[in-house]
Amino acid sequence: MKLNKFIPAIAGAAIALPAIALAQEEAVPGVDASTDSIFILNTLLFLIGGFLVMWMAAGFAMLEAGLVRQKNVTMQLTKNVALFSLAAIFYYLIGYNLMYPLGSWSIGSDETGGYLGAFGPAVLEAVGIGRDAADDYGYASTGSDFFFQLMFCATTASIVSGTLAERIKLWPFLIFTIVLTALIYPIQASWKWGGGFLDSQYGFLDFAGSTVVHSVGGWAALAGALILGPRIGKYKDGRVHPYPGSNLSLATLGTFILWLGWFGFNGGSQLAMGTVGDAADVSRIFANTNTAAAGGAIAALIMTQVMYGKVDLTMVLNGALAGLVSITAEPLTPSLGAATLIGAVGGVLIVFAVPMLDKMKIDDVVGAIPVHLVCGIWGTLAVCLTNSDASFFGQIISIIIVGVFVFVVSAVVWFILKATMGIRVPEEDEITGLDMAELGMEAYPEFAKG
Amino acid sequence: MKLNKFIPAIAGAAIALPAIALAQEEAVPGVDASTDSIFILNTLLFLIGGFLVMWMAAGFAMLEAGLVRQKNVTMQLTKNVALFSLAAIFYYLIGYNLMYPLGSWSIGSDETGGYLGAFGPAVLEAVGIGRDAADDYGYASTGSDFFFQLMFCATTASIVSGTLAERIKLWPFLIFTIVLTALIYPIQASWKWGGGFLDSQYGFLDFAGSTVVHSVGGWAALAGALILGPRIGKYKDGRVHPYPGSNLSLATLGTFILWLGWFGFNGGSQLAMGTVGDAADVSRIFANTNTAAAGGAIAALIMTQVMYGKVDLTMVLNGALAGLVSITAEPLTPSLGAATLIGAVGGVLIVFAVPMLDKMKIDDVVGAIPVHLVCGIWGTLAVCLTNSDASFFGQIISIIIVGVFVFVVSAVVWFILKATMGIRVPEEDEITGLDMAELGMEAYPEFAKG
Amino acid sequence: MKLNKFIPAIAGAAIALPAIALAQEEAVPGVDASTDSIFILNTLLFLIGGFLVMWMAAGFAMLEAGLVRQKNVTMQLTKNVALFSLAAIFYYLIGYNLMYPLGSWSIGSDETGGYLGAFGPAVLEAVGIGRDAADDYGYASTGSDFFFQLMFCATTASIVSGTLAERIKLWPFLIFTIVLTALIYPIQASWKWGGGFLDSQYGFLDFAGSTVVHSVGGWAALAGALILGPRIGKYKDGRVHPYPGSNLSLATLGTFILWLGWFGFNGGSQLAMGTVGDAADVSRIFANTNTAAAGGAIAALIMTQVMYGKVDLTMVLNGALAGLVSITAEPLTPSLGAATLIGAVGGVLIVFAVPMLDKMKIDDVVGAIPVHLVCGIWGTLAVCLTNSDASFFGQIISIIIVGVFVFVVSAVVWFILKATMGIRVPEEDEITGLDMAELGMEAYPEFAKG
């Protein structure tokens, strides 16, 4: 997303610049829009986009609290608040400069494409700067950029918590969150958005993160799910036992929150709002993002009616999210019709992916792997359908490189955690529920159990 | 709301232009604000307004999920997600150009005032347009306009679902939603906001849709309620049996969400933010919208205390919504005091309208008809109190024309659906609850029933 | 926050102007940003900030509904909707001009620093003003300013309702709310933000209201709690009996809502967005506000794990809020690291303050006194750590003056209410629960009690 920041440095190199960078570039020398207003409006876009994406943390919390069983709700809420907070702290301490080294690569360089960014905490601009003191006057304030980018890192961590719910211990999960937000996410994100090798060598296009955010969360979750194992009784006697979510109102609320937040997620990733072209592009993105979600929801609605004879609300909710993930790699170039269809394919995919995971005995409590990993891959490939700058090879090689990196590193971390402190709660605690066993606090202490 | 788009075309005609159009018109030739910035700021207003109104979809979902009985919550959530998604798709496919034909009326013309707009899907501006390529450079980007207007269409559909809850089948309801969002809403909305005959021949004023949105939802709901009939046992033995909402926390949350979203609903309907006058006007609208909601809530609070000796939370919530609907036809011209009183009258009205509907054995599960239809009419008439451009005749004739059109067409559609696929669930399913009977999925499966 | 409004009037006086005023001042004569755009962008900041802070009303409602017991949820929801509505009306009727007399002090003057503002309802600018007709063209529209400031007044009232939950009668509480929002809050707020004596004589710095909003709510709540007494059975037999909150999902949702709203609370208090420096400063504030919340949450997470061997979700939630309150007096000057630590200290403080209050048998149902009063004081003192314009003496004397005023006046009002209409529900009503006893309406009528 933030590729444009270093464009001047590589302007002479013969690299295919993605469309989003060009849009920003043409803004800088704007004739009759003051450049101050470009700085201000871009900053405003990041602040609005950032608070909308921050709100997605609440969306994940509600979605997951609604989809776990009553006995694990407090734990799920605790994990969601804690992971967001840890992401905020560790992205500040380590992640931000690792992701955006601005030329100071530890391994690699802007010319060759970097592999490992810079180490050191984020530093904001001084109070009350003038235009000369702005870190990047043609772009936006550093504070707004940090705020916005942090939220993407936190989103990645939120994806993991849902899959591993109802059986993972609190502290190992939080330690993994630290590694993910401080290292895994920023390193791979730098390869594309920080101007690293995926961007410069492969022309990888990922507008707002179908791969960089969503599939990364999905791969980390998948590694965890495989190592952690399914919940007790889930795949007993060769059958899949459904564990219905305890509160579908909350799950629906969470989905609406995510849907709303996604306008900031995708719209803000235009990275610019200060020209006629950028304003119109952000608008396209809002409209396309919305219609892709609608397409995904309706596809899942129809599919579940046709396949099961009954509409399945949790599938419809995940269908909307699937549509959102699917459009995230390219929310700008599709027409409204194409965006609807790209989202609808996502909605169809998860209707098949959810039972397929169950067949493989991979226990994903909220369906995060189908939504974020499967549709993240689909969305990344779908860029080729509407954006002629994309190459199928560049997309697929990037999906693979990111996937292998994240899956392997995550697996190593999960194995180390398992070998040292253990990652799974004792069997009796899982049966009792994590709320009473681990936290001593029920989410709904006065509501009788059915 | 979007009247100004075609003002150039009718500038020579001797028509009383509403205040909002003038405000926009004076902005276009702005002397020292760059016209680029007007395009950008108007677009930004639509994007912010649009995401706030989108959020109202979650508000309706929570309000309705909180006011239905436990056994119908999953169904109500499903309907709300599905109707919003269908609105997004069918407003794109049909509704938008039907509502805003931009001179290409199928029946009528801009000069005489149109009756039926244009057919064809919405098309956004190309990626990265310059100012010359903007569809309407003096206004805002088409994408932002589409995004904003779509949300009003979806709001109209949301109103219907609450009234008909707990007994209507899923698919007939969704088919009605398609007709409403593709045809009924856009056609009548074109009469005012698309520059149709209500606007040009009657000088009808409806700033943000007390009639065009809220009463339309109310009329469609009323037609449905009459044809569908009341819930089993609701009016048994000549008495009204209250069916208390299952979750007042959700209902309150939904009300707060709607209250928040309404700032976008009314504020965005200024349609412009790029001049000093427009910015100050949007501010007036925010302040007036808020105080009208407060007036409605406090009026209902006092009324229920006085009449029943006890404050009734659901009335207070509906009182706030009543205040919001009441101010929607004219949130700009009233003073803060007048806005408070206009809202308070709305709050008083619903306290009487709710039991009156029950006396007529019209079963409205969430009180949508009192809130959106009764207060929609009141708000439309109240324009005359503070806006000298309004004529009582123009307002009342428009209320009647819109009401007759929507009620009759809706009734026809409901009758056809009833005659073909049936609209009501079997009696035993209604008693069991739609969640288990129709969807096989409870919203709160682990909470014991009281 | 609104200090800059009267700076011209006192520009000759030898007073230490706070940094926020200077930032605004330099914007007015901006060279290449049109002054129209400053008015528009500042107005936009207030509208966005205002709707975010309005959303905090929902956050308090959900937090409190989640932390009270099931039998008192409807009442808590009712109080929250009603107090916000009353704040809207009485801040309009009395509060706004009392807080911002703009030179027309009833007691005192801008030169000496005022003590009591002007009486009379708020009046907005006329519809469609030009720049010459703007009340304060170098600042923002009056409507946006009123809208934004109102939300701070309402926030103060929201703080009180949580502490006094589960035993206070509805109407006396609402009457206190009227006094608080019409008189107590505006009078003391005028001393700082209206340019009164705390600002001019003591150089008191409170950027967004650690003292002016949060500790004021806390003092009013403390006075109420002492006079009202603890809930029945809370401190029976010399032991503290915990009454767990009935719905931690709602409490978590409420916390996320407050976290989100706080970006508007602190960010909007920059009062300007129209220059490079202001845009960058608002960004710093967003980033610092977020990291302070994260610091508070993680501090409480670690502290409860260490002290009790188990993480306590309600402490983590209150820790996040504690971090937010702590950074509110100075969200601009700290670095990200300093902001994290300021928030973390807040998180530590509440872990000790909550049981300390219990030892003193002060029954604070949701922990509002630790969060808003204790951390409000801490945050106000912490200004000295990063802002060299602050004096420890000026801060502490202002804390004391505001504290004594609010506590004494609140106590008098509570005593009068107690002596006349009574403030506490009958014992049997408290045991039954306020929902059935006072309102005749349960929040969750169909959920069986455990």
Molecular structure report:
- The structure is a homotrimer of 450-residue chains.
- The first copy, chain A, is mainly α.
- Chain A has one domain (40-442): Ammonium transporter fold (Orthogonal Bundle).
- In chain A, 66% of the residues lie in helices and 2% in strands.
- Chain A has 16 helices and 2 strands.
- The first copy, chain A, has helices at residues 7-10, 19-27, 35-67, 73-99, 142-163, 170-192, 197-202, 210-228, 248-268, 276-308, 313-328, 336-359, 368-386, 392-420, 427-432, 434-439; strands spanning 107-109, 113-116.
- A two-stranded antiparallel sheet of chain A has the order 1-2.
- In chain A, helix 12 (336-359) packs antiparallel against helix 13 (368-386).
- The N and C termini of chain A lie far apart (48 Å).
- Mean pLDDT of chain A is 92; it is low at 1-33.
- At the A-B interface, helix 2, helix 3, helix 9, helix 10 and helix 11 of A face helix 3, helix 4 and helix 5 of B.
What layout of secondary structure does this protein have?
The structure is a homotrimer of 450-residue chains.
Chain A (H helix, E strand, L loop, with lengths): L6 H4 L8 H9 L7 H33 L5 H27 L7 E3 L3 E4 L25 H22 L6 H23 L4 H6 L7 H19 L19 H21 L7 H33 L4 H16 L7 H24 L8 H19 L5 H29 L6 H6 L1 H6 L11
Antiparallel strand pairs in A: 1-2
Helix pairs in contact in A: 3-4, 3-5, 3-9, 4-5, 4-6, 5-6, 5-8, 6-8, 6-14, 8-13, 8-14, 9-10, 9-11, 10-11, 10-12, 11-12, 11-13, 12-13, 13-14
